[in-house]
Amino acid sequence: MFMLRWRWFEFRMLSFKAGRSVLAAGLLALVLCGCAGRAAREAKFSQPFAFGEDSFSYRNDLVWVYYRDPETGEFRHKNREPKPDYTHHCFPVARSARQFFQHAKFDPMLPAADEATYRKLIRRVVKTSPRRLLKDEERIVIPGYTNLFEFSRAQGSLLKDECGGAWQSYFQRGHWRMIFPFSTQHQEKMVEQLRESLRQNRPPVVHAVRFPALTINHALVIIDAKETPDGAEFAVYDPYEPGQPATLTFNRNERQFYLPGNDYFVGGKVDIYEIYHSWNY
User: Fold this and answer.
1) Rounded distance, CA 209 to CA 39, Å?
2) Alpha-carbon distance 221 to 60, whole Å?
3) Phi and psi torsions of 129, nearest 5°
4) pTM
5) Maximum Cα–Cα distance for the chain, whole Å?
6) Which of 27, 69, 74, 105 is most buried, judged by most C-beta within 10 A?
7) What is the pLDDT of residues 152-210, one digit of tens each?
8) DSSP code for 274
């Protein structure tokens, strides 16, 4: 009987130690993720994100064309013709642009590689978390091209295949945040957070939402900011429009972001928060 009780005691102690080890490992993972996120946030890059160089040449398209009914004034939609073959990839496109800016290094002096090699290099770039910071010697070298824009013009099919599926626009780690209310104070603090990232030449990727309304669910890359009499104006790389930067404004008095109307949004107030900024986003 004593031996049985002792074995039971040993089992309980081992279970306790195992549980404690699992908990410690979990906490360590959180700390390491937090450290990785902090390292990326504290990084300062030598040059700012350059639209038309660090952006993709192709667009993330829409299945529908959105328009305002001239008779009723309501926002309506119809099928896009011809049907586009690359749609609903705004989050993979925005994230990948950030990853290439942060993790890749283009070298046009090296000879161009074959398709298999480029596919492997693209996978390495997009599998490296945008929350991580690589040393310069660790950055992934892309041979034969000057920048991402040029690379995507020549290797667009490969990039579309490897940079992530449309499902990633709906299942992104930070999506949990949009279900909670955004206060005007939070939005005001977000302006300063975005400005600080830009001062470090780190292009913030943001999620634009109007939850619980489903009028917009979109990813944008902030590339520049300037003061205005009413607040601030941000130039953004919109995956939907590779030809020119779009504009996101912040009204200081209302402490609210605004996005103008376009093919996918009627225009008006949006809530903004930065993703790929820390381990939980």
Assistant:
1) 27
2) 14
3) -55, 135
4) 0.80
5) 89
6) 105
7) 999 999 999 999 987 777 767 766 677 888 899 999 999 999 999 999 999 999 999 98
8) E
